[in-house]
Amino acid sequence: MNLRTSHVILIVLLYGLGYPLGAMALGELSAPWVLSIRFVLAALLLAGVAALGRRRWPRGREWGHVVVVGVLTQAVQFGCAYEGMRLGVPPTLTALVIAMNPLVTAVLAASWLGERPTRRGIVGLALGLAAIGVAFAGRVSATGIDAALVLTLLALLGMSAGGVYQQRFLADVDPLPASAVGQFVSAIPMIIWAAVSPPDLGDLPRALVSMGAMIVFSAAVGTTVYMAAVRRSGAARVSLLFALIPSVAALFGWLLLGQMPSQGVLLGLIIGAVACVVGGTGAGGAARTKVSLPHSAGAPEV
């Protein structure tokens, strides 16, 4: 099923905004403390909204699958990405690596879900990678492979695996309560990590403002919209939107952090937009038709 325009706009803007907000928070507080606060408050917010709206919570075996998705897309992705940024990876480079999500998702979906990218999907993926390369070629060439970059790559793997796992096992689960559960479960390892790490507190008001915005826009709204989009349109198709996010993150970085976007970033925005238009209608065969999958662990048909 095609992506909704509202999903496209919200995912691109909210995920793009999340990187500079995360960098602002990490400048005033250590990664495990930022993520502990983020996950706990976001879980409470989402759970409250789900309860007021009488949304359906996971049942039976769904709980285990929701936990797996939450750990992969929240704890692994953000724990590794934020620690990578703390070790020196700039937020724009983090956005660049995470934007490789379409490629990794397509590989995982092909091997796990039986999805075969169409010709338009392949062209869209190629254009998306070109957009990433054009936008951040200078930054990538100046960065070597170190522990920080490895952590950022692990963040990418966590997000991609979580998206495909969700499509495989949670196609019929309401994304709002599922997101609340994922945030809560992910808070547990972050709290343990924070307990053995110094907070490195800097400017408290700045930290609170950046974390508050991050919790509302990225952790709560952004995550829920992403899960809803995967549920509606499939992981491979939704992941194409990440071709746009690095350039959008750079623009927000300019507004919030004073980092002026280069001509390459602006060109990346254009190429990324074309990638979404071309690939959005052909990300994978399973995005349009159901694929029969083995019925293990209560897995639904996708």
UniProtKB/TrEMBL annotation:
One of its GO terms (cellular component) is membrane. Keywords: Membrane, Transmembrane, Transmembrane helix. The chain crosses the membrane at residues 7-27, 33-53, 65-85, 91-114, 121-141, 147-165, 177-196, 208-228, 240-258, 264-287. The keyword Coiled coil does not apply. It comes from the Bacteria. Residues 8-134, 148-277 form the EamA domain. It is found in: Membrane. Its main location: membrane. It is a multi-pass membrane protein. The keyword Transmembrane applies. Belongs to the EamA transporter family. This is Drug/metabolite transporter (DMT)-like permease. It comes from Microbacterium natoriense.
